[in-house]
Design brief:
Shape: elongated
Strand order of the largest sheet: 2-3-1-4
Number of helices: 9
Distance between the termini: 68 Å
Helix content: 55-70%
Structural class: alpha+beta
Strand content: 5-15%
Largest sheet: 4 strands, antiparallel
Order of helices and strands: HHHHHHHEHEEHE
Length: 230
């Protein structure tokens, strides 16, 4: 490679318009907040949606900044590829749905960073509309939860019978059916195993959050009964 070409790659100036940069950042923040709201409202994942989605905005903003910096510099683009080949990301993605939303956030960052704001806004809104219709179509067809849900509650303390009855009564209020499976108690642990047919699955998640808040050292396992093997 001759000196002129080498100088082009190593000394290429990056020109970023400040107004466009700010507009892109504001746009990606709005899009990521919208994606976050849809994820919390319409996602069917059993993990803590609010906790997982709190990183959506910063992920989108980071992607946008990186793209805006490297898009005008071939040298920086090549450097980014080299850096990413060294860095190893380890994220506990439990369900494919989480990965879909992460790709939406990254797409928002890429589109805004590349200056294609109109295109990415239309694309993200179109994707969210599909999610909206899928959510209601899926709920109408599927549940009213026709299948039983197995609920295992493990509390690292010996709680009294009054507290156990209170938990069961709260679950009865949100269930069409509740079957007691087993209970075990030791000096340090109380375990409950129940089968319930909830009227609204979101209510089950709400009850599990209440249990977690009341008993800090507790663990709740929710599983479809049909998926359990004896």
């Amino acid at each position: 490679m001759d000196k002129d070409k080498l100088s082009f790659f190593t000394n290429q100036n990056i020109q970023i318009d400040l107004n466009n940069f700010i507009i892109s950042l504001i746009s990606v923040v709005i899009l990521c907040l919208l994606i976050q709201l849809f994820y919390i409202k319409f996602s069917s994942t059993l993990s803590n949606r609010a906790h997982f989605s709190k990183n959506f905005v910063i992920l989108g903003v980071t992607t946008c900044i990186i793209i805006m910096i490297v898009k005008n510099s071939l040298a920086l683009s090549l450097g980014l590829v080299g850096a990413l080949s060294i860095v190893r990301f380890r994220a506990a993605i439990k369900e494919p749905e989480e990965l879909v939303y992460l790709f939406l956030v990254i797409a928002a960052g890429l589109g805004c960073g590349a200056g294609q704001i109109k295109i990415i806004v239309v694309g993200i809104l179109f994707a969210l509309i599909i999610i909206f219709f899928y959510y209601y179509a899926y709920n109408r067809k599927k549940i009213e939860y026709s299948e039983l849900i197995n609920l295992a509650i493990i509390i690292d303390e010996d709680i009294k019978e009054k507290e156990i009855n209170k938990i069961i009564n709260e679950l009865k209020s949100i269930a069409d059916e509740l079957n007691f499976i087993s209970m075990s108690k030791t000096e340090t642990t109380t375990s409950l195993n129940l089968d319930i047919r909830p009227k609204d699955f979101n209510e089950v998640l709400r009850i599990t959050d209440i249990i977690k808040q009341k008993f800090k050292k507790s663990k709740t396992i929710v599983a479809r009964n049909s998926n359990l093997s004896l």
